[in-house]
């Protein structure tokens, strides 16, 4: 794919606000000058918004204020005018009921900032799970020249000689406490080792996955994904990105030029190779929907087949993002995919050239972190899409985090009607369950929780853990953290709260999982399933007002990205109407 830059100089969008000598221009410029901006900064040069999701209640992004200053320096160096704009920050660790409830609200609010304010291009400062997709969704909708800068992962955790991954070891240690293998006091001691520097999760969780997706899509500079938050090279990346966005505006290089079907296929294969989060499915589908690319679950299954997981990082492997960076980071993975014929080498990036041009001199510095194919963690690393009478519109499973012996399994359903039912019963020693059963969780999808929380990786009952069993088949319409692991079937669609077949599964029903055959089947006669569905009633009334009402009435299913139904399609970025 080739890109032809626009002519420069030309009149930019921001001049609709700041250009000329009329009353309106003086009004807009005059207010901006109260910040001490010299008059010549309004001479037609690119006005670049630094869309900053910094927040002290979004711990992954709490260091972005510093990175914003580096971006600002780069913009000035390249001859642009930087303006920092606070953007909605959906914190994965803090927001209730779940940050996913507010991803679409964040995207919508950022999109309207981009539409209504005098900016010619944007630097998207992201970190935490939902901040990256919300910024990408907004950029896709407005189609203003944009480049993403990730905050970077935190440093490795260490506890009593053990490498500790954020999230991954939280689940592991929590299960160990329930099994009696770790004391509560030891758990509290381990807490201090989990998050010991600024940055996002140090595992290949959703934050690191989405940083990798941004780079694989071509929306970030090469090498952006893995640089640790506290490494000086992260600041350099921010400054270089500030320089680059100014030229992107001059060239009129837009998201619609970069976010093509071929770019999304590159990202899907990358997700398989890195053992990325299942959350990437739902976020990438939403971004594709915003830019008007027809991306489906079938594309995930098709493109992921035959792609081995070669990045040896938790939760699938043993290392963390720090080692991934030292080994060469995502460019090594992309080079491997290209050499194997699994990369569209001509896909355009924010550099203005094809992705392959940036990968010529890449070296793998640690083959135990980025593995050779014959030592891959999983030869079939792509996200598996399952279908059947239990998931007519699909469900997903991450094979690199699953147990091989459970990938073909038939078991008795133990049903939890919602997350409160699960919490109330899971520790009951009289719960009728054994390791051969299949745990089923309902009403935790986009409408159901509401918001689709990361509760799909249900913790096992203590009486199972005490037998030394650490994995069982689990099925839900929920999501799970990218830091989690296990044989977990997620995003089951249609969801239970929308009357999908999951809603009528009963205790004692037999369920078949066959990953190789891509099959998820509820073993009851078709007539009985139909009768159960006819008798189904919604579990609870929908919210009566506010954003919760809007979300409940307009959120789509997980199979299409769980976006709001009225926000799809590339619509460009019209200049805001001047009311003064």
Write a brief caption for the model:
The protein has 580 residues and is of the alpha/beta class. 33% of the residues lie in helices and 13% in strands. It has 19 helices and 14 strands.
Task: List low-confidence stretches.
Answer: none
Count of β-strands: 14
Strand content: 5-15%
Can you give the helix content as a percent range? 25-40%
Shape: globular
What is the spatial order of strands in the main beta sheet? 7-8-12-11-10-9-13-14
The main pleated sheet reads as: 8 strands, mixed
What is the number of helices?
19
Oligomer: single chain
Task: Output the structural class.
Answer: alpha/beta
Cα end-to-end separation? 43 Å
Please write out the topology.
Blueprint: H1 15-18, H2 23-32, E1 47-52, H3 64-77, E2 81-86, H4 103-116, E3 121-126, H5 131-142, E4 146-150, E5 157-159, E6 162-164, H6 168-179, H7 184-194, H8 206-217, H9 232-251, H10 255-258, H11 261-274, H12 279-291, H13 297-304, H14 321-327, H15 330-339, E7 384-388, E8 391-397, E9 408-416, H16 419-425, E10 438-441, H17 462-465, E11 473-476, E12 488-493, E13 510-514, E14 519-522, H18 526-534, H19 546-554
Parallel strand pairs: 1-2, 1-3, 3-4, 9-10, 10-11, 11-12
Antiparallel strand pairs: 5-6, 7-8, 8-12, 9-13, 13-14
Helix pairs in contact: 3-9, 4-5, 5-12, 6-7, 8-11, 8-12, 11-12, 11-13, 11-15
Describe this structure in words.
With 580 residues, the protein is of the alpha/beta class. α11 (261-274) crosses α15 (330-339). The longest helix is centred in the middle third of the chain and has 20 residues, at 232-251. Helices cover 33% and strands 13% of the residues. The strands form three sheets. Strands 7-8-12-11-10-9-13-14 form an eight-stranded mixed sheet. Strands 2-1-3-4 form a four-stranded parallel sheet, with helices on both faces. A two-stranded antiparallel ribbon has the order 5-6.
